[in-house]
Design goal:
- The complex is a heterotrimer of chains A (231), B (955) and C (310).
- By secondary structure, chain A is an alpha+beta fold.
- Chain A contains seven helices and eleven strands.
- In chain A, strand 8 and strand 9 form a beta hairpin.
- The N and C termini of chain A lie far apart (62 Å).
- Chain B is an alpha/beta fold and 955 residues long.
- Chain B has 28 helices and 37 strands.
- In chain B, the strands form eleven sheets. Chain B has a seven-stranded mixed sheet, with helices on one face. Chain B has a six-stranded mixed beta barrel with strand order 31-35-32-34-33-36. Chain B has a four-stranded parallel sheet with strand order 11-10-9-21.
- Chain C is mostly helical and 310 residues long.
- Classes of the chains: A alpha+beta (231), B alpha/beta (955), C mainly alpha (310).
- At the B-C interface, helix 26 of B face loops of C.
- Strand 4 of chain A pairs antiparallel with strand 1 of chain C, so a sheet runs across the interface.
- The complex binds ligand MGD (2 copies), iron/sulfur cluster (5 copies) and molybdenum atom (MO).
- One iron/sulfur cluster binds next to helix 1 and helix 5 of chain A.
- The site of one iron/sulfur cluster has 14 residues of chain A, from helix 1 and strand 5.
Amino acid sequence: MRLGLVIDLDVCVGCHACAIACKQWNASGTTGPLSDYDPYGAEPSGVWFNRIRHFEVGEYPNNKTINFPMSCMHCEDAACVTVCPTGASYKRAEDGIVLVDQDKCMGCNYCSWACPYGARELDRASGTMKKCTLCVDRIYDESIPIEERQPACVLTCPAHARMFGDFDDPDSAVSRAVRERGGYQLLPELGYNPTNHYLPPRKAPPIPTENLGKPGFRERLKTFANKLVRR
Amino acid sequence: MSAVIKTENHDRQEVKYTTCYMCACRCGIKVTLEDGKVRFIQGNRNHPTNQGVLCAKGNAGIMKQYSPAKLKKPLMRKPGAPRGAGEFVEIEWEQALDLLTDRLELIRSTDPSKLAFFTGRDQMQALTGLWAQQFGTPNWAAHGGFCSVNMAAAGLYTIGFSFWEFGAPDWDYAKYFILWGVAEDHSSNPIKIGLEKLKRHGGKFVSVNPVRTGYSAIADEWVPIRPGMDGLLALSIVHVLLSRELFDWEFLVRYTNAPWLVVQTPGQKGDGLFLRDEAGNPLVWDLEKQAFVSALDADIAPAMFGEFVAPDGRPVKTVMSLVAERYLDERYAPENVSRECGVPAEQIERLALEMAHVAFKEQIELDIEWTDVWGRRHDKVIGRPVAMYAMRGISAHSNGFHACRAIHLIQILLGALDGPGNFRARAPYPKPIPPHQLPENNLDIIHAPNTPLARPPLGFPTRPEDLVIDAEGHPVRIDKAYSWESPLASHGLMHMVITNATNHDPYAIDTLILFMANMAWNSTMNTKGIQEMLVQEDPEEFGQYKIPFLVVVDAFHSEMVNFADLVLPDTTYLERHDCISLLDRPISEPDAAADAIRHPVVTPDRDVRPWQEVLVELASRLKFPAFTNKDGTRKFKDYKDFIVNFERSPGVGFLAGWRGKDGTKSLKGEPNPHQWEKYIENQSFFAHHWPDSQKYNRFANKEYLEVAADAGFVGKVEPIIMQIYSEPLQKFRLAGMGLYDGPQPTNPADRERLGKYFDPLPLWYQPLEQQRVDAEEYPFYAITQRPMFMYHSWDSQNAWLRQIMAQNYLHMNAKKAAELGLKDYDWVWVESHNGRIRCQIKTMEGCEENTVWTWNAIGKQAGTWGLEPDASEARKGFLLNHLISELLPEKPGERRITNSDPVTGQAAWFDLRVRIYKAEPDEVGSWPQFPEVKPLPWDDGRRPAVLRYNARSDK
Amino acid sequence: MHPAFSVIFFTVSSGAGFGLFALLYLADLLKLGGGLTPQQVWVGGAIALVLIIAGLLSSVGHLANPKNAWRAFSRWRTSWLSREGVFAVAFFPFAFGYVGLSFLDLGLEGLRLALGGLATLLAWITVFSTSMIYACLKTIRQWNTPLVPANYLALGHYTGALILMLVAAQGEVELAPYYFLVLAFLVAAAFLKGLYYFWIGSPVAVSTINTATGFTRAQVKLFDAGHTHGTFLTQEFGFQLARRWALALRVVVFLAGFVIPFLWLVQVGPQAGGGAGVALVALLGVLAERWLFFAEARHVVNLYHGAQRC
Ligand SMILES: Nc1nc2c(c(=O)[nH]1)N[C@H]1C(S)=C(S)[C@@H](COP(=O)(O)OP(=O)(O)OC[C@H]3O[C@@H](n4cnc5c(=O)[nH]c(N)nc54)[C@H](O)[C@@H]3O)O[C@H]1N2
Ligand SMILES: Nc1nc2c(c(=O)[nH]1)N[C@H]1C(S)=C(S)[C@@H](COP(=O)(O)OP(=O)(O)OC[C@H]3O[C@@H](n4cnc5c(=O)[nH]c(N)nc54)[C@H](O)[C@@H]3O)O[C@H]1N2
Ligand code: SF4
Ligand code: SF4
Ligand code: SF4
Ligand code: SF4
Ligand code: SF4
Ligand SMILES: [Mo]
């Protein structure tokens, strides 16, 4: 299995729901709590696994705004794992999920240097590196109803812009979406082979506007015979 | 490599279903608790509103529950301390209630109007309205007047339902969707769910908005219109449709007043009113019978166009003829509006044609049998799958009522309302046009002590006689709603209350109760001025403020709390019983009538009480008739008891589900003592799914209207005919022109406004403030947008949400900024006719060139909301509100007039014009800065350096 | 990259220590300038060890959770950081043996030199590993080059040579070879550093905001990063140095690191050796170099925070 996410940029409205759902679930999850620094002070910040950025493509008035959620891509060639000196970072053989063992991490930050996608954040309070777990503590929890055994961010996304599934299975929804919609990876030139894929915005087909009505109704109206329409 | 992942221990967990109130969308939530601590809040998959999803705010409920800004105990202004100094003493609830009861008793037994009770972002107006009515004061309203009454009024005076909660797009069938001026809306989750559905089905999504963020980001086409110009754009689209005869004849003839005949006697009384028979029925010209017949009859073949002579000799024309005459005029040709709107003519034309193509060439036919209100069976439902939705980009302008009507006119011409793929009504709508509910205006009743009003304080006037004015024509309500200044103010004018009450205009009040409204900050215009008014002393009454007693009912330490004489601390949404009623603004969806409840899932750890309970308590103490038994004893033990047992009319109460003694009846039935339990068992909501035959064309759907009449949604089974031409407006216009048999205004300003703006057909005019402000001096339009992850002022206290945004910027078009020599993060001065602010700018591409904008309500007053005084919200964030005046710029010889839509009194937030220039290098930080608010008595001001929330006990 | 002092100190200090150690050993082995005295050897060795240990301690101080530091030896098969740790630790027994035997003067010359030889090998590998910690990262273009190990080795040896010259100056040994050793490494290091600066200045950015977002056919700009204040990512990677400061600092690097020491050395000539002054100025230059090494490195994650290219 190769589990990961597909993010549909065609419909992501940038609402940040997935980011907060992630925060909420993981605060009390396997690698929680996720520290928040200066939470009510001048410059609040904290540990997040999923952040939403907003880009603009093109120039006014031909510009498009792209909302861009990013979390761990669970890369196939995850340098974050190979560079980790302690073995705290690992990639699970059975499903490809990349995790950090909180009991082993020494907080050297090195894996975060190796990650191109900004997916790893150090928790200063625990001194350990934290990252998206692909909600491994939800998706395999058999006491959660089966339809809810999905990452918290996927469950919550109001625009259904997030899909979770197995990329090794060519018939899975994620594989199909990537195939049919031209799903792509970020920073492909770095060779991490990220599992998560992004679906580009769709192009709406043009709507025909020819042969619609007869122009000149204003003139016609002067000599107009009503149409007989019964109620 | 693999490792066993420990999943969590659920033994000590408990799951409860209730309703979110991180915003007014009111999604169903499933709350997992561990030892009473919130572990996880997720969407309820079965809930009609959110279908399992949850927005950012909803997901951050935990951090609201654990906010340091929560109020903990009733507070009284410290004796001797000036108002607004933030000096409070804690008092007991009994003391607070005694004090308030005494004061209210006195008011009620002397002059009930001296109580003004206004509410903000609550969703319990059925209860607060009833309470005010029972108290006997006309001075009650909710936030609608400053929110979106333009949408409500335009819809309810035109199509019988409306944008803003009383309708929703049919996402399942729509193929073309136009979103006008919406950043987020109340239907936060449904719109997001819907847009994805629409796009997945291959539908086209067009967003008309000066700014491209959020929803507009994913639009297939973005129309960067100039603010305030939508009416013109819409009417130009109407022009294109008409000029090619692209309209739905059947729809217009059957369901609208297009063929009704309008008297054409300019300058005479009765001009512009419908030609009616003796019984008062409007008339049409029947092409087959070649006679005038009642427009309400079933078997008619009305002429849609034409001029006729009435039997009494008066010339008459059909509404549609008037429509054609007006909108076929070259004034509305795309090339003639393009420059003003900022939208290219080709684009306007193309948009109109695209809509027409989808409406007429891609029509949907569903094999659903239904019966029209005239008794005819139809074996199909036809859908013209163009849907629209519009909100504050339209409503928050002083020409918004007409702009919204113009949008409805497009929908009507396309026959694209309440059918498959259209904008469709949500129960209890549609209602008669306008709804049959008039505001109380009987002065004897209003002034009678200890007497409830016979009618609710708010309603829908249809003629000048329905205004709430005294014999001299002066306003009777403190907000001047239903006066000549704002005749169709169906939601009141909350934004005028503090100004008017301070000016004792029209009169002085004694007590102002504000519930869930931050009127000292983000929900008021002219914030600085308003704060000054709140502490203004009355020179005539020594030691008394202009507004003598101010009660604030809030759950958090808002800016408003700081000005209170009495603070009543409310619970959070996870701690209280609540009901989201069909009598109010329910959570219905087009396919289901629905309501919901909240019940406590977390036990309060403070001395707070739900305002609902307090209202029932006060009502009982004050012995309101509806809350008191014949023998003078109290009728309802508490709020729960009230909700179950109160009946507005026999069988109709606050909750529609599980009625009847045994809980088997829906919508209508005797009270069920176990109704709350039933709701809780059923995940806290009730949905009555409409059968297919009752889903569409409900304005003329017999089966539906029968059920609706029975449930009390409508008075009786009769067609709801859409009013392209609005006769109520014309009556007010006649009054303005001195041609009305009935009340007429005497003030020239009122007469001019009625004459100009009460046009019976949709109209575009330049927003009022802009008519008085020099566009060269103030070259930019300035507007706000709601961030999807913050609800007004509520969420800066939220440790998670504020990390996303702790400071707002003024955004402007990158090219324009470069022209002005401005770049990202420059501090600039922004000036309007009302004042100036300093803020930081950030440039972008997705902003119309003449527009600047910012996120709403991010700026905070230092010391409030549980934040440390140096919080970015206070030091760098800002409010645009300082620049917006609640009054129009002065005009010589004219009294000061509200900065609102002249028809509805809707606050014109977005009419603002500003100029911008770079601040000096040493001028940094946002300005104005207000005095730092003192911590409340229980607060030592200390905040944690690190927050590590975890609800699990097994970790 | 955020130029963390602990890491700057670590690399400079241990780099100098390892460089010193290796050169000391070679000088000892090859009897450079007539041969160092045993005392000079063990003093020089001790200085090297102190520098290395101070550096390593500083690097442990950089850890947020040092109690797990011992685990860092476990992943030497894939991690240069782990390798660095392993080799550094492996270095010590040999190095101590070599220095100890020099100090004790037990006459086990063969063993002493063998231990020293092995330690020197490990020193080189360790410095190489340290440099590879940076050079292996594809996320940072400015580091992902063989010039980085070359620089690290050259600079380590250069600073080591400077110290060695100080040590040598304390005895009878002929200074000239040590002097020329310094000059040789100075020129090599300066050349490699120059090359490095030239190379990172070349505009061959492979990763851009376009490849980062997948929108490759139009201008892409960041509108909002989704958080108002700093995050771990902006703190760790967001460090940005204005171009003119970078240039000014490069001037400092060259002046203090190479030009002044060079002129000074040329001025005083091979017999005087320059003394501690030169070493101190050069150290300043190398610290500036190391600071710049971090400060000028642009992690690709910056593309998600507004950078156009990295
Ligand atoms: N997350 C969140 N949700 C909320 C709220 C909140 O505070 N936060 N508030 C709730 C409330 S009270 C309300 S009333 C609703 C309001 O919901 P919206 O109607 O979405 O309100 P605004 O955010 O004011 O959005 C106004 C939009 O209109 C655009 N606009 C401004 N002027 C014009 C114009 O002249 N023409 C056009 N076409 N567009 C224009 C603005 O750019 C902006 O995108 O949202 C509700 N939902
Ligand atoms: N510039 C600008 N200003 C605007 C707007 C705009 O678009 N631009 N929008 C306007 C609109 S449409 C609206 S509706 C208003 C919104 O204005 P309001 O309705 O006033 O909304 P808020 O100010 O966010 O919240 C009011 C108060 O509710 C309190 N509150 C929150 N939860 C509870 C609770 O459970 N119980 C009680 N008792 N109190 C609670 C909060 O603490 C806060 O003090 O803002 C208006 N102001
Ligand atoms: S929840 Fe969905 S729509 Fe919202 S930001 Fe995340 S991915 Fe985008
Ligand atoms: S995204 Fe970063 S953290 Fe996640 S697997 Fe890839 S490299 Fe590692
Ligand atoms: S921070 Fe932790 S997980 Fe990352 S490389 Fe260091 S030890 Fe490994
Ligand atoms: S999969 Fe889970 S951990 Fe990863 S971003 Fe989504 S919610 Fe967060
Ligand atoms: S939209 Fe969000 S905040 Fe509003 S009720 Fe729904 S989940 Fe709660
Ligand atoms: Mo609102």
